[in-house]
Amino acid sequence: MKTSLILNMARALMLARFKQTVVAGVGVVFSITMFVTLLSFMNGLNQLLDGLILNRTPHIRFYNEIKASTSQPIEASEAFSDHYHIIRSIKPAASRTSIYNNEAIIRTFKDDLRVKGVARKIAAQVFFNVGALDVSGVINGIDVEEESRLFAFEDYVIAGDFLDLKYTANSIILGKGAADRMLAEIGDVVQVTTAQGNRIQLKVVGYYQSGLGELDNVQSYASIGTVQKMLSETPSYVTDIQVKLHDFDLAPEMAREYKEIFGIDADDIQTVNAQFEAGTGIRSMISYAVGITLLIVSGFGIYNILNMMIYEKMDTIAILKAIGFSGRDVNMIFITIALAIGFFGGIIGLFFGFLAGLGIEQVPFELEALPTIKTLPVDFNPKYYIIAGVFSLVTTYFAGYFPARKASSIDPVDIIRGK
Amino acid sequence: MRGKPVIEAQKINKYFYSPEKTRVLKDVTFQVTRGEFVSIMGKSGCGKSTLLYILSTMDTDYEGSLLIDEEEVSGKKANRLSEIRNEKIGFVFQFHYLLNEFSVLENVMIPGLKLGKKSKEELEHVAMEKLRIFDMQDHALKKANQLSGGQKQRVAIARSLMNDPLIIMGDEPTGNLDKKNSDIVFNIFKELAQEFHQTMLIVTHDPEFAAGTDRIIEMEDGRVLNS
Ligand SMILES: Nc1ncnc2c1ncn2[C@@H]1O[C@H](COP(=O)(O)OP(=O)(O)O)[C@@H](O)[C@H]1O
Ligand SMILES: [Mg+2]
């Protein structure tokens, strides 16, 4: 009974000042719409950009780095154990870049429940012999199917069939930039010289385009077997083990763990792409800031309108108090008005925000660098809707708080005497 | 029933501090007992309205003691005072003070809705009964601002009766009406006194009105001359 009376009073006051109420509501609708649209769009873009790098980057990469030994022979000598060792001009030893016993390591990863998949890789420095010219490049030897399953390799093969790498002997998928430079068409044969001086003929079966020009000028792909053959290495020769996890947040910890166990180098995605994460974070921070600013501005709109309403409805408030409404009742009436504006404005705003998202999603957006993207990206994560909804109620509550307090403290005697 | 005190004011003093400290009520002491129809008379500015605001619990800034229905109200919390106003006091102002956002019927019902002791249907029924006393039942669904001054005041009185209050207080309820309408309102008060034995305390300027009441309290310069 009591709440329905307060709701009734709030409704009557809003209807009495219908235009202002609508204006305040439109403010909320607008800001919530913008908030949701901005965040969905911005995060859609973020995910697209993240995907550009993160989707095809291993969560952890294991490899042997070429570096100087951490222990020098003199340290083993007891005669000099209490001396300072000053050694100049240390050079890295000709250590193997191949990962020793990699089959066992890969088996361990495959048994680890946190791991989604493992793919081997060999990176080989080569020269493409184009007429009289040598163009330098890198050929990545990959497990074709695993590379595609885990790192979306297939998405970036823009011409030809990526499976040809596996089924056609001595085949290569050229980076688009490299192919353009070499004027190599699909079906052509290119000649490659490895750093060791081996020459090999490879048939072009496709183009690869990552969207990152620098990469596409240099990187090409062949099957791991082809590269092993090219380098005259055994089938156990592998330079990189790429691991994808179910939860990529575990990467740094697992990298450290396995680094210890196997005594090899490990890079986790967070460390490698720290600056990328920072960019993403800043972009979402900016969109949250803009969205919240909009909401606060609309909160001021509500604040103004409630103040005006209270000023105009002094008599009504006084009479309600004379009749026996307590300060708390009056306070609740005005808080209810504010929350109602926030609630309905918020709901309509969320709906419009959703529509705006659908609209943006229809806008064609094709970039050569982004072969899988056809329209502008929008992230319809319910999170943004929940945040916007909560914020609309919170800001309208605070916008109503002070006017409501003012209304509740109106002294009816002052008003009645004033007549 | 008769003889039980409804209002007991003891040595009520009231000061205003602006522009300078002035004592506008001086040791006001009097009683109103159940069923009495009492009028308060006095020159303009002698403190009648000020007294009435204190008696109706709207003004709490005074010295002295005030009992309503034998309950000490001075020093009570604001929420309790609101309850007392809602349940035990009906107030009629010089200006009608209806809520223009609501219909006549809703205006009369609001104190009942606030009290919350009856269902909406029952309250509607009660409110219609109250309107019928004043022959206003045909206007029940009009908006408050569609009525004439006299009609508004009748609705305001109906509203003050909504919760069957212990006492009705009026501050010059006919002061803003023409002769014809003030006669109507005056007769309403008389009827309430005679037929319903409604306890009433009405401030008036009108000697004729005062003459028709059980007792006249005369005020002068903040003092009650007889009590
Ligand atoms: N808010 C106020 N501040 C200062 N003085 C006031 C105030 N309200 C009323 N007064 C003074 O108190 C005295 C009594 O006023 P009031 O009770 O309204 O008289 P009445 O109703 O008998 O005409 C008057 O002299 C008036 O000027
Ligand atoms: Mg007066």
TrEMBL record, chain A:
Cellular component aspect of the GO annotation: plasma membrane protein complex
Cellular compartment(s): Cell membrane
Keyword hit for Cell membrane: yes
Domain MacB-like periplasmic core: 26-257
Keyword Membrane: yes
Membrane topology summary: Multi-pass membrane protein
Alphabetical keyword list: Cell membrane, Lipoprotein, Membrane, Transmembrane, Transmembrane helix
ABC3 transporter permease C-terminal domain boundaries: 290-412
Transmembrane segments: 21-42, 285-311, 332-360, 384-402
Lineage top rank: taxon: Bacteria
GO biological process: lipoprotein localization to outer membrane
Protein family according to the UniProt entry: Belongs to the ABC-4 integral membrane protein family. LolC/E subfamily.
Name of the molecule in the record: Lipoprotein-releasing system permease protein
Organism: Mongoliibacter ruber
Lineage: Bacteria, Pseudomonadati, Bacteroidota, Cytophagia, Cytophagales
TrEMBL record, chain B:
Keywords: ATP-binding, Lipoprotein, Nucleotide-binding, Translocase, Transport
Any one GO MF annotation of this record: transmembrane transporter activity
Stretch forming the signal peptide: none
InterPro entries reported in the protein's UniProt record: AAA+_ATPase, ABC_transporter-like_ATP-bd, ABC_transporter-like_CS, MacB-like_ATP-bd, P-loop_NTPase
GO annotation, cellular component aspect: membrane protein complex
SMART domains in alphabetical order: AAA
Keyword ATP-binding: yes
Domain ABC transporter: 7-227
UniProt xrefs under SUPFAM superfamilies: P-loop containing nucleoside triphosphate hydrolases
Any Pfam family: ABC_tran
Family indicated by similarity: Belongs to the ABC transporter superfamily. Macrolide exporter (TC 3.A.1.122) family.
Protein name: Lipoprotein-releasing system ATP-binding protein
Originating species: Mongoliibacter ruber
